[in-house]
Amino acid sequence: MAKHLYDETGRLTRFVLRRDRIRIPLWIVSFAVVSAVVAVAFTDLYQSDQERQAIAETMRNPAMTAMVGPGYGLDNYTAGAMMAHQMLLMTAVVVGLMSILLVTRHTRTDEEDGRIEMIRSLPVGRLSNLLSTLLVMALVNVLLAVVVGFSLYALNIETMDLEGSLLYGAALGATGLVFAAITAVFAQLSQNARSTIGFALGILVLGYFVRAIGDIGNEAVAWLTPLGWILRAEVYVNNYWWPVLVTVGAAIVLSVLALYLNSIRDLGSGFFPARPGRKVASPLLQSPFGLALRLQRTGLIAWAFGMLLLGASYGSVLGELESFFGDIELMQQLLVQTEGFSMTEQFIPMLMSVMSIIASIPVLMTILKLKTEEKNGRLEHIVGRAVSRNRLMGGYVVLSLLVSVVMLSLTAFSLGATGNATMEEQLPLGMFFTASFAYLPAVWVMIGIAVLLIGWAKGLSGFIWLYLTFSFAVVYLGGLLQFPEWVQKLSPYGYVSRIPIEDMDYGTAAILTGIAVLLIIAGFIGYNKRDIGN
Amino acid sequence: MTVLKTEGLVKKFGSFPALNGVDIEVEKGEVYGFIGPNGSGKSTTIRVLLGILKATEGQATIFGMDAWKDAVKIHKRVAYVPGDVNLWPNLTGGEVIDLFVKLRGGTNKSRREELIRRFDLDPGKKCRTYSKGNRQKVALVAAFSSDADLYILDEPTSGLDPLMERVFQECVMEAKAEGKSILLSSHILSEVEKLCDKVAIIRQGKIIEKGTLKELRHLTGTILLVETKEPMPELATVKGVQGIEEKEGALSFQVDQQELDNVVRYVSQFGIVRMESSPPTLEELFMRHYEGTGTTERAGVGGEV
Ligand SMILES: Nc1ncnc2c1ncn2[C@@H]1O[C@H](COP(=O)(O)OP(=O)(O)OP(=O)(O)O)[C@@H](O)[C@H]1O
Ligand SMILES: [Mg+2]
């Protein structure tokens, strides 16, 4: 009996691999390439011990701890230590994301679309699908660990030895495994693919913040999440392997739990209860705009909370930052005298750029929902009624513009409010809003590009995520790796005034807004001309 | 008065011609059946008519307006039920019906309640939990509770149980009685036969036959069932005789209208014991068109190459 639960798992595993034969190698190679490029860039940029030691000093500040994890080996900050300390956490978060997307794709999405029903009608075990997905994830993450590990070692950088490199890879792979298992559990608990991704992503993002709080405050808190564990491996310095073992152990336990939950539930159902719904539509749900809002309501509320949390955690860091630099009186004086701005003020534009890019995610999701609706064959109901395409797309554009303003307001507010609550020096709240709103035109350009793609080349609309990732890379890594100025100018976020240390450049903002308007108009023209359907 | 009309409609997906010159015409107060095998272009025609797809060539007009350019204006007076009803999993049926009715403009609350009752739908359930038939009912209730002049229905009954199918047929009859026009695509030929005044048969993107059922039958001929004292060995060679089958000890076959006289003369030589004639059912018509044109068309394509 038990044996039949897993019949044909091998064949299904090969089938999953076949379906993802491009996707999986692409993920793995990207991780290897990015890790190697950053490692090389670090060694090129900081060649002497003094230069590295200078960086190590800035790493002692709590803001950096919150962002990249607790410093270790700072007294002898070798190229390896530097690379692992600054890159492991960020890379691990993206590996977690990969696992979440892959697992959901092969579990809940397939189930929702009725494909699992077809598979189950064949002589295939009840748990074979989940087990094969987990096996594939094990393979993917082991491969990831080995490929990343060996490619780092192959760079032949003195302080990046074989053991450390393999541990670096293993820490990433272990994170991938544990998030694959977490997603597998949520795929059983929740009712559909959307909330599976929502819950798993929530755990990932929450994990990042919980760890930040733990790392700058009470270390026990950092133990609540796997992201906190793997940072304790102290790669390239002490090379502890136990965090990897603990993480893999947790992954196995969670996988077993997921299999158990799968075995006791019905196909298509979940454990989180479904509430009975309304029998009539609310007044809100009576226009394309209302529908767009209603469909994304839950997601947007979650994002709003996320942005508040993000702003608040950076805000509390501002306070820590102040006291940190306050201790080094001389340094503070130097900075204030030469620049005319306090250290905290100089830090704000950098925070704003990162937060505005993160805030762009819900904005772009809002507009791209239009494409998802089309793909799922639901737009036919709308354009088949007395709704013009302009009104339909207009609803989504207006909603995404609103979301951009709301999300940036929330970050500005929570950063300012918590910042001022924890700092002695008070900064005007209006300044935070100006600094944040300065990014609005750049976000609108992103909306414009998305609209243009939906209007003219809906198949390519995923490109916008690539562009956002690129923007994040040049803004986030650009500072670390000292990219030339023109690279930043390849992204709309590179044109934004760095308030408060720069004045607001209304001319550039107007040009960005103009570009956004033109892109949106062009998108509408294309949308009015093309077929609707998948 | 012509409500809906297409002329030489061509739709290419890339280089694949899904529609290859479609001409149909629906008059006011008429129920127009649209039948054809899978992938023949029924849904594509309907989507072009709704301005969801843009025709590559040809004209599609509804109420005298261009189906693409004046889509919104047209849709104020059109109700549509798509072939695959995909709904939002996290909205309830009731919410979706209200939304649809609102998006067309105008509300008719009492009609909505009545239809929900007649179709036996629970509007408080999330669409995720609806069966295929229930999703279809949502679309049907939304369509029939709106006060449209033209109903475009793409396989509306493919998931309904027989009871619900009857409710659907009543709804169509009521709409017709009010002088509304209906374009109905369906694979259920008995339903088409029962409801439709006119029928168009589409095959590989082309209309191969259209007209009233009577006209179509006339084109096809009569079905004869004959029992004779002596066997008729040469029957198959007689001009105008097709599709001979043994049935209950008698022979059933189809006779071309022009040859009826000759065939009856021939048959009478063998001593008729029993003879029944009947018009062909739509199914027989349909089969004949499919099988018949299927072979000739294939030969034609081969000949061109
Ligand atoms: N978006 C598209 N891209 C490419 N080909 C398409 C597209 N939509 C339809 N087709 C093709 O056009 C042809 C006609 O399809 P259509 O959906 O109109 O058939 P149908 O008559 O409605 O069939 P069914 O009875 O199965 O519903 C099919 O061969 C189909 O594969
Ligand atoms: Mg169809």
From TrEMBL, chain A:
Q: What is this protein called?
A: ABC transporter permease
A molecular function annotated in GO for this UniProt entry is:
ABC-type transporter activity
A cellular component term, taken from the record's GO annotations: plasma membrane
User: Which keywords does UniProt give here?
Assistant: Membrane, Transmembrane, Transmembrane helix
Name the residues that span the membrane.
Answer: 24-42, 83-103, 124-154, 166-189, 196-214, 240-261, 300-317, 347-368, 395-417, 437-457, 464-483, 506-527
Q: Which organism is it from?
A: Planococcus salinus
UniProtKB/TrEMBL annotation, chain B:
Query: A Pfam family in this protein?
Result: ABC_tran
Task: Name any one GO molecular function.
Answer: ATP binding
Annotated keywords = ATP-binding, Nucleotide-binding, Transport
Q: Which InterPro entries does the entry mention?
A: AAA+_ATPase, ABC_transporter-like_ATP-bd, ABC_transporter-like_CS, ABC_transporter_ATP-binding, DrrA1/2-like_C, P-loop_NTPase
Q: ABC transporter domain spans which residues? A: 4-229
Please give the family membership noted in the entry: Belongs to the ABC transporter superfamily.
Q: What is this protein called?
A: ABC transporter ATP-binding protein
Q: Which organism is it from?
A: Planococcus salinus
